[in-house]
Batch of 2 targets.
Target 1
Amino acid sequence: MAVRLGDTAPDFTAPTTQGEISFHEWLGDSWGVLFSHPKDFTPVCTTELGYVATIKPEFDKRNVKVIGLSVDPVDSHVDWEKDIEETQGQAVNFPMIGDPDRNVADLYDMIHENANDTLTVRSVFVIGPDKKVKLTITYPASTGRNFDEILRVIDSLQLTADHKVATPANWTDGEDVIIVPALSDDEARDLFPGGWEPVKPYLRVTKQPNR
Ligand code: BEZ
């Protein structure tokens, strides 16, 4: 069964490169990114894991814990990490789940049999501190993900969690935002004392509130 937006992220216990974890307990009060890659010792995956390790301080800044997964065992992840450090110039600095029995992959529907019946696709799940799934993305094996986009979505999710705003197409942190349509103009006046630009009654553009 697919994991969908708003669902509680399935909990599990699994071995990782940093010891066994119970997922919800490991997340604690943090946000989380759980992402799968198809296979260890493969080229695109090597670049992805190296890049995620490089931008880990950006996840830390946002109170986000990152964890990877494939159906390879932990021993294989540990061996592969040496190659990642050598070729990508950055040691892997987050846990990777070893899931040879596909327990977690099945829980999160990460194996799409019509694409490949044994390997996980490139799934991404962003999970909020309430353990609800906030974002799901699926990429094919041949396309490395844009992890800067994942950070951008987290910025948007964290902003909308705290303020009654949504973010427009291609928004990045610091740019103007949109007052959610559910808020009346009277309610909006209290929350946005600086006002807004009424492009249309349903499209009210305002400065980013937490700036
Ligand atoms: C890769 O990471 O390069 C890859 C992995 C599985 C299938 C195709 C490509």
Target 2
Amino acid sequence: MSIIFHERSREFHLFNDSVSYIIKILPNDQLGQLYFGKRIHDREDFGHLLEFANRPMTAILQDYGFSLEHVRQEYPAYGTTDFRLPALEILQEDGSRLTNFAYESHRIFGGKPGLSGLPATYVQEDEEADTLEVTLRDKLLDMRLVLLYTIFNKEGAIARSARFENHGRKPVQITRAMSLSLDLPDCDYQWIQFSGAWSRERQVKTRRLEQGIQAVSSQRGHSSHNHNPFIVLKRPEADEFSGEVMGFSLVYSGNFLAQAEVDTYNVTRVMLGINPFAFSWKLEQGETFQTPEAVMAYSSAGLNAMSQTFHRLYRSRLARGVWRDKARPVLLNNWEATYFDFDEDKLVEIARAAKEDGVELFVLDDGWFGSRSSDSSGLGDWYANRDRLPGGIKGLSEKIEALGMKFGLWVELEMVNPDSDLYRQHPDWAIQTPGRMPSQGRNQLVLDFARNEVVDHIYDRIEEILAESKVSYIKWDMNRSITECYSQAFPADRQGEIFHRYILGVYSLYERLIERFPQILFESCASGGARFDAGMLYYAPQCWTSDDSDAVERIKIQYGTSFGYPVVSMGAHVSAVPNHQLCRNTPLETRGNVACFGAFGYELDLKKLSDEERRIVRQQIAFVKEYRQVLQFGTFYRLQSPFEHNIAAWMAVSEDKRTAVAGYYKILNDVNCEFRRLRLSGLDPDLKYDVEGMDNWFYGDELMSAGLVTTDASAGQAVPGQFCTDFWSKLYVLKARGE
Ligand code: DGJ
């Protein structure tokens, strides 16, 4: 058992080979935090790690003679003697917001319970993890707070969540309920966030923690392009390969807050959970409220090791279903090939060419339904447009399958155009505030997924199409943020619940569709990567990473995304040049060399390419098919950051370390430059590796310590067609010799 309770000292120690997490029941029966970090020996009493000081000006809890202001806590409340921002806040009928949740009982058990209606990591065998459930009780309110901690036996990761139960007779309003709160004893950290905007998601931003509050959040109803519900704290000297690092990831797709508050004594309080802004949840007697899950990972071996923990965990114990462990089909999506300008014949011809080159899945994007010939109408009317598709989705999907390919379909189920039959029939089904002008985004409104009847209607419509057609893949899009958030189906004192209820509605629709169509591969999408979060990965094992398909921009976007999410989860396509977002021309090889570190595909009309380009495409597809197991499921290492260098590099290594592929990307060409080497990672030091295209072989230790020589053969002189382009890249394929 990797969770021990020491009765005398009243301490819980959760540990495995790599991490320890220690909690103490404080003198006032609330929970204190003693340690999170590298695994340390267990002992009966860690009480010395709980330091008190009688400082002037300190507010003392009368009965206990100590102050919460100076105590590191597990799930702190505001208003008694702690003046920092709290993990919870409950507004009561008399106007008070004070609470006192004190230890009542606990349970330790093998395995990990699911969270009803919410995405969460899971185990397949009870032996994979142990769970501590601590129940705290506020006597005055007759409320319970149940804190869940699961430690994965083979990962340096702990999953946490909190559940509120109201047993009292009076209703309360929960106005703050974080998933995770962690008080760390010092603040000698750099904070890393993954921020950006549409088409430049998850850029790596690093800064020193300072006294005060640093935070990222979303108030948009989805996790957003702007900030990601994932943050990292690292020691200043830590890098990709060494040093102490902690990652905090929220398994949630709605409004979130990720925050670190450093107090005047340099204690760092990390918080992660539903954004308390614009949130409240009314809890009547007998009702419970479950927070989403947060996962925290610790690494003493740098950022790559932390990311690899998230990659393994999210790939195999968050993602689910038949596609979880399967290499992903090479797809071709028609969006950038046709936009809204297509009919069945055109699509079939595009698919036929794709089939010739080895594409396995043809995806029909936006524009196939209702009156949808532009983005100004038709959303919500989930009937195939018979002018464009005379045989409907059924007919088209059969034609695609007859070509020997699988068929995939785009949907945007959460939205409605005002110019649609659905909106004309049910205007109250859109989220909007009575008496206020509804704002539009991309000419559309958001459907009120807080209402079961709306979700039921959409389920019925899409179920009918999927049931009669041969659909193997769904791209589930979502193209605007929520404004004027209000549901006409809920009373005034429940309007603070709508953002969260909306996302619960999205999850429930996903769950029903996954259950009904377990063979379908789902890819989530939100104007590119506006909902690339761990919550979505529970339903859709891959996500369209960004609408920006330019290879150079994608290096940064995929690099940033890889900190918290597995390579296989990143939808990555080769698109046409000049690129549709930036008008940049990049070599076709580089577009392929970037996209192959992801769920690979094309987003163009292959018929429009030259014979030579088609030859390259065929080569790329054959390469991906041969190496996708390593590329998508191998251990991924970031080697050189595009945020810091002109040359970026990363690599993937097979589980047995016998095969590896390194991607090497030179953004701008340079002349008469230095000799170059790339230090590889994750290889077996004792194995001899052949590097494709090189005559020599190399020991793994040499490649990792001395490095692979990557010097341009031209040594900086322009040799047309060789090394003299900007945006040049190369894949190094390594294979071990012998058995
Ligand atoms: C936004 C997506 O990110 C694109 O890939 C495409 O599907 C469009 N929506 C279609 O409207």
